[in-house]
## 1
Amino acid sequence: MKRILSTLLCVIILINFIFANCSYAEQAESSADESAMPDIASEPMEYSENVINDMTYEGDSTDPRTGETAGFNIFEAASFGVVRALLGIVCMIFNIVPLTAELLMTIITADGTDAINSITSANNEFSFSIERTVFNEIGIFNIDYFDFGTEVKKFNFFGLFSESEDDTVQIPNSMITIKKSVAQWFYISRAIALSISLLVLIYVGIRMAISTVASDKAKYKSMLIAWAEAMILLFLLHYIIQIFLVLGNLLLDLAYKVKEALVTDGKESFEQNLLNTIVFRLFTSSGTELLILTLMIWCLAFTHFRFFLLYIKRTIMVGFLIIVAPFVTVTYPIDKMGDNKAQAFGLWLKELMIHIFIQPIHAIIYLIFAFTAGEIATFAPIFGLLFLMAIPSAEKMVRNIFELNGSSTIEQLQAIGKKKK
């Protein structure tokens, strides 16, 4: 331990010696006549008693002018400097994780643009942020799997969108490939589900033909009616999915229009400025301020990473729900035969609604926390950070109010299968 401290102390002294602050005196030019200047060298220099005391005054001695003893201790000053240096080194090491996470999220969500140049530019246009995520301004989070266009308008309320190029979101080629793959698997699943449904129809018809008990005939008759409903749903699934996507986009467009109105009124989100300020001051601060900034960048990066994972999961889950949707209609007549309720289809519909409408909910909450409270965050950045971290709690409260809580689709389907057994 002593060897480590000695090495750090030597490194700090060496750095202070090499990069010491230097001052340079520039010779001033004067047009005054030299004869007008007094000849100071020819006059004897006199010293007052106070001046002599000032020149000979040393630490830990009594000042003859005031009688006070100085409290300067070189060892305390050196130890304090070492502590500050160690704190700075530890904070910078810990800050590698959140800064790397922010950089990776920016690169992934940069829509194929040069993210490094965007980060180092003045506007930080392509930096990952909760605002760009919840207002559908990141291409890889676009869940309209039946739209293969390379550009999407940020605001498209019944076609009333702006023609400006700045109002478009670029969809990366990788996301377009995923969309086409999901759409293809959806049509394959629908063809397989249609074949299975025909087999179910043959089975129900045979059972109705050989049944002699009236109760059995009534049961298979109701199953046949449920099968017909399932066939209608099978061919309407595409439209059902599109209707929910359109409704979700309409709510999101309304929130986006409110955001533009607030920006026009002079209210802006503090999130990007907060991130830029924290990152800049991390490299220019020290001591307690650096420790506070380290805690803030960790909290902000954690909040960003949480939203990043949430919307990655949302994108994957919506694609998965679209692919398995035709198979849900196969179980529709079987579910209705038991208690006249289609649990699998109801669960699928609820999960689809949650994953689609969670984005407009986030957008509305973000407007409340980030825009209306922007002035508070300007004077108290810590409160602004707390507002951003409170968005998931507000979302949970909204979901409880509208009863939109639900667990993973796979776990719910497994639970239904166990009950049937």
## 2
Amino acid sequence: MMPLSEVVQRLAARDGVEGVLLLSGDGLPIEHAAGARVDPETLAALAATAARHTGLLGEGAGFGEFATGVLEFGRGILILARAGADDWLAVLAGTDADIGPLLYDLRQHRAALATLL
């Protein structure tokens, strides 16, 4: 089985991906591969907060547990994907990135990623 750091590096090497951060549900960075413009500690804390609140939104709407979300901003896309019971994967991508295959892979390999944690 591939080490966790290699999985993160491979995700970060995909076309259009600018950074990848694996974070705990408490908002602490576990592993990351991102450019200098990203502060892993700040991004981890904010992403965990967003995941918690988005989860509450889904529960309030009767949709159940939050698994994956795509947030589109003026200069990029942020994907939040559950990676185990309490951990999250934050993927930063450019606005022109084709995220369809990435979303498919994240869904298909969620269980395998969780076993690495």
## 3
Amino acid sequence: MTQVFGVPVAVILGQLMLGLVNGAFYALLSLGLAVIFGLMGVVNFAHGAFYTLGAFAALLGLKWFGVNYWAALVLAPLTVGALGIVSERLLLRHVYKLEPLYGLLLTFGLALVVEGTLREGFGATGESYPVPRALQGAVNLGFMILPIYRAWVILASLVICGTTWFLIERTRLGATLRSATENAPLLQAFGVNVPLLMAATYGGGVALAALAGVLAAPVVLVTPLMGNSLVTVVFAVVVIGGMGSILGSVVSGLALGIIEGFTKVVYPEASNVIVFVIMAVVLIVRPAGLFGKE
């Protein structure tokens, strides 16, 4: 059997595919972060908490109201997005003219409140979310047995990321959002409700995080701290791709997931730090990120 670095090629290909699944989550989460930072200039440290809320919304919707997975894909992001809009109107709008550090600290505190509330209400132990019947089973790729649900996660993530990039970069709505960042007073003079636009932008960004939480619910245990394990990696992904660069976040998220998967096969001890090593190298060589503007 053909080997690379002493590891069978089939094992490497299987791990790369699993890495692509992780990369799909990285891409989707970093997309929301990039949207919020690129259009609002806010470092949203509560992103992992909103991801957790999305998973809990799906789980509790199923347990309490019988809301199935497909309905949760729509209802959970809308619910969490509405909560994000309320948070922006009550809290975030007061720190826009201050140093970015204040926004980071505020969202960090918001994340602690969300996590503490969930732990108090549901405990620290996790609960599993069932895989929907239509996505159960697996397909034989020759080199691995790939669960259909994980294939669905990759496809859904690519479609969502591509659609979001198109809306922001190639439509009139996206041009208006970017204008609000560059010259809000001028845009308001043309009759655009800039505060409402900013609130909707934040709500859309956290809705993307919640959508990632719904997609992750059948894959991982739904716990109050499930966002903690991802948020630091996702911030590293955003820094590597370029703060505020939507395309950079998506490409970097997918690529880093694959690199992480490859590292787990070749040198497992480095798999937990490889993303941060790459981030350090990128910051030294190109501080603005691979796709960011200087």
## 4
Amino acid sequence: MGVPAKKSFSYPIEAIRAGFPALHQDINGSPLTYLDNGASTQKPQVMIDAISQFYSHDYANVHRGIHSLSQRATDQFEAARETVRSFINAKVIEEVVFTTGTTDSINLIAASFGSAFIAKDDRILISEMEHHSNIVPWQILAERKGAHIDVIPVLENGELDLDVFHSRLSERTKIVAVTQVSNALGTINPIDEITLAAHKVGAKVVLDGAQSIAHMPVDMQALDCDFYVFSGHKIFGPTGIGVLYGKQALLEAMPPYRSGGDMIKTVSFSGTEYNVLPYKFEAGTPHIAGAIGLAAVMDYLSEIGMENIEAYEHDLLAYGTHEMNKIEGLRLIGTANNKAGILSFIIEGAHASDLGTLLDHQGVAIRVGHHCAMPVMEKFGLEATSRASLAMYNNRDDIDRLIAALQRSIAML
């Protein structure tokens, strides 16, 4: 089988790479080849500039001041919320809650929705491929409420066993929480089928979008999930900012998660009246600069087009898969028919941590370990894999440098 042909559509890869300053440096005497995007992405200059402008000229706290700087900061912060709403096609701005990230968002759902709507002997259905952030909060909730966790197994190719999924759905299932894209395997899950089936039994669907938000278009109204969560740092944005999307009626019915400033309307010792959505879930001073930086990134990505990014990365994944399959002794972990840009692998006779160190010496950044997905590692009988994860700014030269570095490392080991 020959090398996959490059797609013919126009994609401004050189201009994109030029806009990410961190990519243009040497590591240990070699040009940086950054392939750890599943853990966190590099940042474009447009985002850096937006945050710098805010801190240099417009900084003040939001929602609380009548002076010009506070009004400017508030306008930018709320404009950022509208940018997020548009980017994910939420129906109304009240459905966009700023959090600190994916983990915080899932904890909010588990604590707030869980405390109000999960009862003894209810069932929560999650998958074997979930990140720990989409496992542990549900375990804590189940323990607190006397509920039960059910698990959707993963097949040998890295796809979910949908027969078991359907068999484990019941009227006692109140939450189905799954990742849209596996961080350890790259599998793109059949969210339409999962959501439709879950809703038929009355379950609410929580989608972990941490590994999908930067790689494909997402549309809340088309997905019809009840909750969707992601982190800014996974989509070329700042750390410490994330988003919880929730259907308005559900968010209205949920109690506050944290308490303090901004989530209140009035406070007295006779009682407190909570603020309206989305502020009911945003206690304290928010990460204003983070929201502004995230919005700048989303505007930038919208100009390129998420459909174009998805097609480009699909082409790059096909090339990377083809080249890695030529390396003797290398086995890809996660070979689903529908995948995003994750290349997890093991090499016979090579420990993942040794391999990662040798690649770093050659300027190639990958991730090694269990990827905060220990149950799926156990499924495959592994303690760790090596993971090269792709992003919109990677190119075939990055793949070629990875392959060359792997071959040199194998020879050393």
